[in-house]
Description:
By secondary structure, the chain is mainly alpha-helical. About 60% of the residues lie in helices and about 0% in strands. It is globular.
Amino acid sequence: MQLTMSSSPHIHAKESISTIMLDVLIAMMPATLGGIYFFGYRAAIVVLTAIAACILSEYAYRKLMKKSSSVKDLSAIVTGVLIALNMPPAVPLWMVVIGSAFAIILVKQLYGGLGKNFMNPALAARCFMLIAWPTAMTTFSEAVGNVDTISSATPLSVLKGVSEGTIPELSASFFGNIPGCIGETSVFLILIGFVYLLIRRVIRPHTTLCFVASFALLTFLFGKNQTDYAQGYYTLLHIVNGGLLLGAVFMATDYVTTPTTLLGQIIFGVGCGILTFVIRQFGGYPEGTSFAILLMNVVTPLIETATIPKKFGEVKRNA
Length: 319
């Protein structure tokens, strides 16, 4: 019998980086198209600007560094769409360009490119922009198809008591007819993408479910409810408003910056839920999802090291 000796991997699958990224793009399409429907043409311009800026930044950097082009793997497009979904529809386009370049060059490419960045590029760009331009990044519009008509406070800021306004009904928040970022307002459309990713086996549900469940439990038990609603309804309002679901589905499940072990994903999800609750309840921002995920990105290597399964037959050495 003739044997062939070769290096690993010995098991191959049809999936590639580009096919996985394509699935992620398809999963984000409902939320993207919904944002364009709710906020009008300006949202479409923000999406296209972010995508173009990410592609050009990646191409230019790799060209300058004399590296092969990686645009075809679609990861730059995914980053561009994620950045756009986390932007207010009326954000100045030059800020979108700077944020996109920051994500691709400083967070992704300077660390070696796809697979080597230690935090999510889109979330890093969002947090950078929140710190650099807080007014522009927290000025939202009513979802009426024209972002130039009505400026409004987000439901989270009203829930926290830092802004005046009316808290929308749960159904309005679930389907997306509320102020907010382009891709975060419709939980229904985000969940469609979540189900698609599960069916395609691109992600596992553990991180997302632990993220939302831990946040919901803490909010129900310890949330500072300053409304006339029951604590359970107050908790549901916190879940369906803001970027919790958008982050839990599309960014807390990132292959590169989150744990690969099952226990690690559970710990990561619970950590994100706890930090999001702490920031929302005690921080200066009404929202806390982006900062929570980034903080957990930083400790992902420690979680991964602590949760790696023991090798079969491994014997513990005596100190």
